[in-house]
Write a structure and sequence with these properties.
Order of helices and strands: EHHHEEH
Radius of gyration: 13 Å
Low-confidence stretches: none
Strand content: 15-25%
Distance between the termini: 23 Å
Mean pLDDT: 93
Number of domains: 1
Strand order of the largest sheet: 1-3-2
Shape: globular
Largest sheet: 3 strands, antiparallel
Helix content: 40-55%
Length: 92
């Protein structure tokens, strides 16, 4: 997991479909069971309100796999740069 520290997963887009694909691909590489569970929970319309809740859940799941001292989310200096960031970055 340490190889994820300060790594961008997707940058430069707020498109729900692109974000979902990138997050799900990352989750699949980290934990196949968690990926399968989330895949089964994925709504058919990711751009719906239900889709927004699903993406929020993806943030939480990926955050649970963040390396020690890191969080999963938007970079503190760029709200469209999603990845695993060290907590020091967030406090800078």
């Amino acid at each position: 997991m340490e190889n994820l520290r300060n790594q961008t997963i997707i940058c430069g887009t707020m498109d729900p479909q692109a974000i979902t694909r990138a997050f799900m691909a990352t989750l699949e590489s980290i934990d196949a069971k968690a990926h399968a569970f989330m895949r089964d929970e994925m709504p058919s319309d990711i751009e719906s309100e239900e889709g927004a809740f699903f993406i929020n859940d993806l943030f939480s799941v990926l955050d649970s796999f963040a390396p020690s001292g890191c969080y999963f989310g938007a970079h503190p200096d760029d709200g469209a740069d999603f990845g695993f960031w060290s907590n020091e970055e967030a406090q800078a």
